[in-house]
Amino acid sequence: MQEKSGFVPNIFLLLAHRPDEFRAFFAYHDALMDKPSNLTKAEREMIVVATSSANQCQYCVVAHGAILRVRAKDPLIADQIAVNYRKANITDRQKAMLNFAMRVAANAYAVGDADFAILKQHGFDEEDAWDIAAIAAFFAMSNRLANVTDLRANEEFYMLGRS
Amino acid sequence: MQEKSGFVPNIFLLLAHRPDEFRAFFAYHDALMDKPSNLTKAEREMIVVATSSANQCQYCVVAHGAILRVRAKDPLIADQIAVNYRKANITDRQKAMLNFAMRVAANAYAVGDADFAILKQHGFDEEDAWDIAAIAAFFAMSNRLANVTDLRANEEFYMLGRS
Amino acid sequence: MQEKSGFVPNIFLLLAHRPDEFRAFFAYHDALMDKPSNLTKAEREMIVVATSSANQCQYCVVAHGAILRVRAKDPLIADQIAVNYRKANITDRQKAMLNFAMRVAANAYAVGDADFAILKQHGFDEEDAWDIAAIAAFFAMSNRLANVTDLRANEEFYMLGRS
Amino acid sequence: MQEKSGFVPNIFLLLAHRPDEFRAFFAYHDALMDKPSNLTKAEREMIVVATSSANQCQYCVVAHGAILRVRAKDPLIADQIAVNYRKANITDRQKAMLNFAMRVAANAYAVGDADFAILKQHGFDEEDAWDIAAIAAFFAMSNRLANVTDLRANEEFYMLGRS
Amino acid sequence: MQEKSGFVPNIFLLLAHRPDEFRAFFAYHDALMDKPSNLTKAEREMIVVATSSANQCQYCVVAHGAILRVRAKDPLIADQIAVNYRKANITDRQKAMLNFAMRVAANAYAVGDADFAILKQHGFDEEDAWDIAAIAAFFAMSNRLANVTDLRANEEFYMLGRS
Amino acid sequence: MQEKSGFVPNIFLLLAHRPDEFRAFFAYHDALMDKPSNLTKAEREMIVVATSSANQCQYCVVAHGAILRVRAKDPLIADQIAVNYRKANITDRQKAMLNFAMRVAANAYAVGDADFAILKQHGFDEEDAWDIAAIAAFFAMSNRLANVTDLRANEEFYMLGRS
Fold first, then answer.
1. What is the pLDDT of residues E117-139, one digit of tens each?
2. What pTM value is reported for the model?
3. Contact check, Cβ <8 Å, E112/C86
4. Nearest Cα residue to D51 out of D111, D128, D140
């Protein structure tokens, strides 16, 4: 990220304070967000933006909103998903993906067969379900860390990918 | 708005379908948002953005986020308030204003003396409290109308006031 | 209202303090509650009573409960709907109407195709859906104004239409 | 109740179906509602009406609303408390009593020293706290039974004590 | 209970303070928990444990968890149901029973035909529905009493039925 | 863990399916739970049990409840904290620690100066606050993964540390 964008995201500075946690955090992050998967990188960022908005995490919505705009090559999509993903210009399959992610974010204790059946109807298999759930779960953690530490998004993120 | 920005906000098209409601809606809107008041126009837009985000209203967050950026001459403020106004770069007085607005949006039935005492500590008098409450209440209505009719924000709003 | 009942509802006194808002409020109110519509006037008052009770608005439940009793020529209906509309002596079609109104009052951000399909099954078309939503939205505003200003219902309303 | 009012409340008919439960229910009810206590009988009915309204129990709000009107000799009080007890014409001490009752109804798991300290400030001792809590708890049970069995209030209750 | 276990459950000591309430409470309890019914005694304790856990009642979860382990002859079942009954090793029929009990505990106002239809599909008749609802309702009361009085479970309960 | 207890916790088997995530998960876990800190290891497990119970995570409550019993050398503490930590036999300082952890688990977006002031009153500094928040956040993630994958606790955990 730093190399491409020319600035150091503030989350790096925050976690640098705790080197062991820093390494584990980014190892986990990269395993979920950068490895090959049936979910496109833009779709993974959609999950981050939708669930981080439900958790009211300013850093994550602004920073990952920027990455989503870049990856989806769409200047409008991040704001739409942040405010109400149900009304965003995305496919029904992507809405099903986000419905599941939001269940994991808010009601994981009640996730069950009915949820997986809907995912399957939209072509998501068990590995895809894991990916969606793991990203929603990882940002359940990140959102809480960022909110408690009052982490601010770098100013550069606000404009990235808007034009 | 149209004259200055060169496009017709979609809310006009939506309500044009019902001329009597259209006239009353905009008469009410203008009485609250354009008349002289102790609240600056930027502060009034902060109320709109914060409460509309809580109500997940895409049109209102995107359109009034744009107006807020223009009125506050601040390209970052709308996104900050939309995601989590408690963490936005605004004054403590403005946070007290938004705390009250959010009480009206979510728990108006429990508003009482303690709320007004806090407002008073921050220099808001009874007329100011009415202004804050009336704007939060008006957008409680607008947000619901926009969400039920799936109203989309004009594309022009997304970039307005960002640079 | 005043002419028929012989007293001035307190909401008039409250809003008289702000003439521009007064005019817009009642113009909007009358456009929704008095104009011709597929919804009967009693049905529109049912929407007011059910959603105002969810918002714990004393003025609106007591005053519009009275109007509902008068319009429906039924002394019991308002109390039933105020406490739990699901258990009131109304038709299934009216319950579907109130289910939709309550969705608008509480979860408008999630209203979608499934909601409109249910309305259609009960014979409500798109204009009817607008009417239901607009009344629920208008009283989302009114309820908040009345609660914040501690508006009390005129004593006359409590007995109106009970015998 | 029957003797005085000349009709048999429907809750008697409902529970007659289960004689052992019937006897225990009314023994418990009478121990809480009819025995000597520092709370007046009208105050005890206030607790029933406020908590039963939060639980949306039609039978209990309508029937005990009637009893409250009779006991308080006030035709307006029951409707006020049913919709929003915070705005009812009752004393601050009675509002503290209802705040505690509502905590028991909704969040008993969090009741603690702070709650008892507020009660004490208003002159309620430990026995009074028990009375308030026990009534709120007993109607937590009654409200659920009445809602599940779709219990309707006798028509006579609606008008009782209104003039 | 005392005779079999050799100790006096603390709930007896708590309520001994109020003899009339004591007698009514245990008469009601025994009518629901000890009489013949289509629900096994273990199933009735499942209802107690699941709903008491939702109400965060330490006494009821620990004490009735012990009784459930004894009655079901299963050392694991109580902890599973207390944390998340949806993931416990119980039958689908028992999950349907607990789904209904949890509706009564949390949303009794919305219980209706759809709920009874699901119960019927799993072989529960109207009397069984009453039993489930009455137990959930009775412990809605007990849980509140125990939480307000800070009732602790006897130490003996923690180990009962674990080996 | 395995070495000491003689069995492999099921979470290892679950995550073995994804080696990169496995390594990052346990690196993070160990950095938070095993490193030197002002919080005792028993206190850290208290945070896990309280927040995991709020998230209804069966694996985490049962497995970490066992570890808590062992580390605190107290056979009762885990069940008490799981059901209602406010009523557990722990110090006021530990209750303040758990209050903060629960804020992070449920409302991290609203954590602010008032929360840190309370922590400070109980002798927790900024590093301690980070530890509490990071553990609550990490298990916000773990709880969601375990619930979505229906992860069961090893039977051995249920009895560990009870005698």
1. 999 999 999 999 999 999 999 99
2. 0.96
3. yes
4. D140
